[in-house]
Amino acid sequence: MGFFDRLAQLLGLKKKEANVLVVGLDNCGKTTIINQLKPADAQNTHDIVPTVGFNVEKLKNKSLQFTIFDMSGQGRYRNLWEHYYKECHGIIFVIDSADKLRMVVAKDELDVLLQHQDIRNRRIPVLFFANKMDLRDAVSSVKCSSLMGLLTIRDKPWHICASNALTGEGLHEGVEWLTDQIKDLVIGKK
Ligand code: G3D
């Protein structure tokens, strides 16, 4: 059973809704990752288009919602996506591990996100994908953690996985972790 099915089933049982934000700079692989995570029968439907700043994907059963933001473009859409911070139960932060130059920008965006008033004081789980691990210039997930300053995050559970969104490699491990974290948050404590 995939991430969607498993989490949706758990949430469905409790009539809860979970919101997951999928964020990162443009072109880092957000859309490709979400497509991989969708149930097999929905994977080849073209209902997710490349993200232009902002894209909300709501699953049919309505218990699980993915909202995808591009954190690029001088924050043109920032006001729109900040609206979703209050309601989110988990964050997937996608990093292009082969684009060391823009990792500095990704780090700045991460810092702004983590300091936001609606995120700062909450123990929201953050899953990082060091994506595009298949590319020759890709840095390891350990190196990625250090470039992104992840070791300084102490008030939120976080986890990083190297991934290849084209093949799906690494995605499973990451979403297993996120599922467990959200399960505790949404079902365990609310
Ligand atoms: P975005 O939604 O974050 O903007 P996309 O990014 O999912 O649209 O991906 C941007 C490009 O990167 C796409 O290529 C996609 O196929 C590619 N990509 C995504 N993940 C990986 C990966 O893990 N490895 C490699 N090698 N490429 C990846 P195109 O050519 O369609 O623009």
The shape, in one word, is globular
**Which range does the strand content fall in?**
15-25%
Remind me, CATH topology?
Answer: Rossmann fold
- The low-pLDDT segments are 48-53
Oligomer state equals: single chain
Give the mean pLDDT.
81
Sketch the topology as an H/E string, one letter per element.
Answer: HEHEEHEHEHEH
Number of domains: 1
CATH superfamily: P-loop containing nucleotide triphosphate hydrolases
Q: What is the strand tally? A: 6
Distance from N terminus to C terminus (CA atoms, Å) equals 25 Å
Number of helices: 6
Which percent bin holds the helix content? 25-40%
Distinct ligands, ions and cofactors found in the model: guanosine-3'-monophosphate-5'-diphosphate
> How many whole angstroms does the radius of gyration measure?
15 Å
CATH class: Alpha Beta
- Main sheet overview: 6 strands, mixed
CATH architecture tag: 3-Layer(aba) Sandwich
